[in-house]
Write a structure and sequence with these properties.
Number of domains: 1
Distance between the termini: 30 Å
Radius of gyration: 16 Å
Structural class: alpha/beta
CATH topology: TIM Barrel
CATH architecture: Alpha-Beta Barrel
Largest sheet: 5 strands, parallel
Oligomer: single chain
Shape: globular
Strand order of the largest sheet: 3-4-5-6-7
Helix content: 40-55%
Number of helices: 7
Strand content: 15-25%
CATH superfamily: Aldolase class I
């Protein structure tokens, strides 16, 4: 796990648990976050690269949630090119899979997928208004080439979680 001392300012990051710890609890993969465009970017990318090396030796896949953050360098964190750049950086530092936000259309998310040679999955993000909206987002992402989804509240808080998974 990563520990972030200042949840909203993103100025401190540290790795608290190792890949060995993940193996000891029977993990099937390791997940890290990488925030791009802010002062801790270099540190988070160093952590991603280090953990990626450990994961390779342990034969555990690494999923990196690569997210651009609004900053001087990135005026619009939801811009498809910013998302594509964040995904590409995570790949270049060793990610086996990328988790990122859907950019709103198959065309714009296609930019992310085309620029990242490892599988891209979409994050659920904020709770959507309906099952139909959730499924529409999934369909658009899959049309663009996403490999799958990593959803939480949009499944568990739906009226029919089992139906949403099917």
């Amino acid at each position: 796990s990563l520990y972030r001392e200042d949840w909203l300012a993103y100025t401190e990051w540290d790795l608290l648990h190792s890949v060995e710890d993940a193996l000891m609890v029977g993990a099937d993969a390791v997940v890290l976050m990488a925030f791009i465009g802010i002062p801790v970017e270099l540190k988070t990318l160093k952590i991603v690269a280090s953990v990626a090396s450990e994961c390779m030796r342990a034969n555990l896949p690494l999923l990196v949630e690569a997210l651009p953050c609004q900053s001087e360098r990135i005026p619009d964190a939801k811009d498809p090119l910013a998302m594509a750049s964040a995904a590409r950086l995570a790949f270049e530092h060793g990610a086996d899979y990328i988790k990122t936000y859907y950019t709103g259309s198959p065309e714009s998310f296609g930019v992310v997928v085309e620029n990242c040679p490892v599988p891209c999955l979409i994050a659920g993000g904020p709770r959507m208004n309906s099952a139909e909206e959730t499924l529409h987002v999934v369909a658009g992402a899959m049309e663009a080439g996403a490999t799958g989804v990593v959803f939480g509240r949009n499944i568990w808080q739906s009226k029919n979680p089992a139906g949403m998974v099917r």
